[in-house]
Amino acid sequence: MRRQTATCGANPAGSSRALRLDPLSLPVRFDAHDPRADGYTRQIELHRERVVLRRAVRGMRMAINVRVSDFTGVALRGNDEAQTLVLVHRDPSLSVPLLVSADGDELTEAWAIWSELFALPQLDEGARKPAPRRRRANAIRARRPKFLMRRRTAMTRELPLHQGEREIIARN
After folding, report:
1. Which of 141, 117, 111 is nearest to 24 (CA)?
2. Is the pLDDT confidence value at 66 over 90?
3. pLDDT range class, residue 2, cuts 50, 70, 90
4. Checking DSSP bridges between strand 9-10 and strand 4-5, what pairing results, if any?
5. C or N: which end of the chain has fewer Cβ atoms within 10 Å?
6. Cβ distance 4 to 33 under 8 Å?
7. Among candidate residues 52, 4, 1, 57, the one with its CA nearest the CA of residue 26
8. Quick check: 9 and 41 in contact, CB under 8 A?
9. 95: which residues sit within 8 A by CB, 6+ positions away?
10. Measured between alpha carbons, how far is 90 from 120 in angstroms, rounded to an integer?
11. What's the rounded Cα separation, in Å, for the pair 89 and 72?
C-alpha cells in the first residue's frame, strides 16, 4: 500500500520526495490528492497548452480537459514549513499542484519559470484583500419599477372624454 499526502496524493513506491515537476519535461502525468474522488486521488496530465484531469466519483469515471489559458495564474500557497506552487483555476477543484517545497529560493525560481512557460501572471495570494462591497442600489435608482415598464405612458394613449352619460373619444 502506498502512502498518501495531503498536498500531492500518492507518492511513487520508494520515493520520499515531495511533489516536484520539471517545467522543461512536459508533457507529464502524475497523481494528486482529490478529496472528492474515489480513493482520494486523481490523475493529471500536464501539457503546455492543456491540462487533463482524470478521476472517478462514486464509480463514474470522467476526464476533464481544460485549456491552460482558462487558468487565472500561478500562485504560491501554504505556510512557512511547506509551501505549494499551484496552477490556479476559478473552480478550486480544477487547480493543479506543481511544486511542494520549503526552500524559498527554489520556490521563487520555479514560480517565475512556470509563470513564463504558461504565459500566466504570478498571483500572490498572501497579499490578497477582499474586494470592497458593491452597492447596487445607486445603479438602478433612476430606472422605472419593473411592473410600470409594461404600462404605456399617458401621452401615447387616446384618452376618453366624459360628457354626461355618453362617452366621446377624442380623435386627432
Report:
1. 117
2. yes
3. very low
4. antiparallel
5. C
6. yes
7. 52
8. yes
9. 86, 87, 88, 89
10. 14
11. 6
Distance CA 51, CA 122 (A): 18
Amino acid at 142: A
Task: Say what the pLDDT of residue 5 is.
Answer: 45
Give the model's pLDDT for residue 4. Answer: 43
Q: What are the phi and psi torsion angles at 106 (to 5°)?
A: -65, -40
Chain Cα centroid distance, residue 139 = 27
Sheet of 41-46, strands arranged across? 28-33, 41-46, 50-57, 60-67
φ, ψ for residue 47 (rounded to 5)? -115, 175
Contacts of 150 (CB under 8 A, 6+ apart): none
| Residues counted in the chain | 172
- Residue bearing cell 502524475: 30
Q: Which three cell numbers stand for residue 166?
A: 355618453
Q: CA 94, CA 62: separation in Å to the nearest integer?
A: 13
